[in-house]
Structures are given as C-alpha cells and as structure tokens.
Amino acid sequence: MLYLKTSMLTVCRRCFTDKLLWRRGLSTTQNLSRTNFSHQNILSHFPHAKKNAVFLSKFVYCPAAFTRGLFGGGRGSVHQQTLKDIAENIRECKFRRIVVMAGAGISTPSGIPDFRSPGSGLYDNLQQYNLPYAEAIFEINYFHHNPNPFFALAKELYPGNYRPNLTHYFIRLLHDKGQLLRMYTQNIDGLERMAGIPPEMLVEAHGTFATATCTVCRRDYQGEELRNDIMEGKIPKCPTCKGIVKPDIVFFGEELPQQFFSYLTDFPVADLLIVMGTSLEVEPFASLAGAVRGSVSRLLINRDLVGPFAWGSQRHNDVAELGDVVSGVKKLVELLGWKQELEALMNAGGDKASINKE
Ligand SMILES: [Zn+2]
C-alpha cells in the first residue's frame, strides 16, 4: 500500500482523495477527460487491499480508515445487510431510485471479448495491426494517424453482432418497474440499448456506436448510417467534407460525454447502488461508487471484491455477491420472485436463451 504524506498525518491514497478532495468540493471526476485522469492517478481512487499490497496491509492500516471503523463506519454491532434484505427492499419498492454501474463483466456472457484479460482479450487480438501499444487503438492522435485498427474493432463490436444477456434484461426489468434511476455503463457494445433500456436511462460513460460525428466538420450521424461501410471494412467518410466519421466512442484524450455529469444529480438521490461486472479500475468511472450517500445500500455482483467494497472500506450496508455475474444476478432474481417476468422479457427481446441456461 502506498501512502501519501500530508502535513498532518499519513493516510492512504483513497482516504486522501475522500477526505481532502471531496470535502473541498473538488470531485475527482469533475472536468477531467480520461487522459487527464490517468495523470491524476496519485490522487485517484485506490482500494485499501491493492494487489501487491496484501502483505503490508495486514500490518499497516490507514489511520483514517481505522477511525472510520471505530466510529460506526465499519462493521460494528450493526446488522450486516444480506442479498435477501436487498431483494426484499427492491420487491417492496423501498428502493425506487436504483443506480446501476456496470462494466465488461456483464458483456462477456454475451460472448464479447474482455478488453483487458491477457490471452482472450481484445487488445491481444489486435497485434496484427502493428499497434505501437495496445491502448493506442483508443488514442485520438493515433486514430488521426491510422484509423484502421479502430474500425477493425468497430466491425467486431458493432451493435447487432451480439445479443444482450440476463444481466441486461434484469436492468431493463428494473426500468419497466419504474425503479431504475439510471444505468452507468463502461461498455461500448450497445447491449443495454438492445435490451430495451431507453437511451435517456443510460449514461454510456465511454461512449456509443449508436451515434457518430465527422472529425472535420463535426456533422452528426446515426450509427446505422455507418454500418455498411464498417461491415465492408471501409473507413466511413462524411459526404459533406470527406472527413472521417468517427463513432462517438470516448477516446483517451477526449472529453467525457456530457451525460456523464448526470452523476452529480443522480448519485446524491440514489437509494440503492448496484455495481456489477467491473474491476472499478478505470477513472473517473471508478470513483462514482463512492459518490452515493453513506446510508445508501450498495450491492456488488462481481467476480472479486473491488473498489470501496475491498477490505477496509466497506460499510455495514454493503453486500457482495461474489462469483459469476450471471449466477449472481440469477440468485437475486430468484429472491425477488421475478424469474418468470424476466424470462418473458428475454423471449420478447428475441433472446430464446432460457434463464436456466448459462
Ligand atoms: Zn464532415
């Protein structure tokens, strides 16, 4: 664990961020593009139990987190909430402003390659394009130099190639029941829209293929207008100015979409936060998990403990359902008694896969 020295005491990076930046009203996520943020790493969100820090963290405890643990912030005599409690509160409509945060882990069950897993990852499969380094595919300067690798990826990920799965339809069901406040997704595969979640209920933090913009004259296009070119392996050009038309995916070096800032009004009024299928490692998205009020229940459905759910910073009203994401959502759906409704929704959505099928 790395510690930052402040004038008064030594705290870990997470507490430094929480205590100083948030208190001064300087949200770590405000007005920063993804690129700026990568330079802000020292002030960014870091879980207490970070890889390579396990040994140290057994012996060294951040004083700020320790104090929080002593005074009600941690796991005292308060009832530790369970998945069953969360389900009960959803079913009884006690939660009516649910915010969902999701990442790649909800799309991998649809067959979409994980961007970051070595071997199976999308980056690894892009070696044929001689990228100087994998992330260059999402760098705007590299795109202006050579757009081909990005459009090869676009062809693979273009909406229509994959089907939404149970996790997407579960969120759709939350919306149908009027209990979804907003879904924040890091995914650019468009499966949320395909599952029928209306665009206004979505914050596609890293952009979308549903719309596109000319890189020269800034004219707007619908993603569908680019489909033929992209599928034929051609670079889509603007009929007006002949500039390259780029899908509205957020590249490193570009500002986040305006809707991202809905979090400023959504998170303070949320009554439940569901985080699923994300490593919470990409800023500024990751910091959002800490932006709900302290009294708000947070449910993590994920392979591992991540972000604020990791050791040392979880709250008594945090619930972690660890393991396969689809199985976790399925368990919640069964506790809710929504299995049949969800199945009907999936069938209507053209997805014949049964809820009982992985
Ligand atoms: Zn143009």
The helix/strand class is alpha/beta
Large-scale geometry: globular
List low-confidence stretches.
1-76, 351-358
Amount of helix:
25-40%
* Discrete helix count: 14
Average pLDDT over all residues: 79
Q: Would you list the SSEs in sequence order as H and E?
A: EEHHHHHEHHHHEHEEEHEHEEEHH
Q: In angstroms, what is the radius of gyration?
A: 21 Å
Number of strands: 11
Strand content: 5-15%
The hetero compounds bound to this protein are: zinc ion
In whole angstroms, the N-to-C terminal distance is 38 Å
Oligomer: single chain
Main sheet: strands, sense, barrel: 6 strands, parallel
Strand order of the largest sheet: 5-4-3-9-10-11
Descriptors for this entry?
358 residues; 14 helices; 30% helix; disordered N terminus; disordered C terminus; binds zinc ion; NAD+ binding; NAD-dep_sirtuin_deacylases; transferase; metal-binding
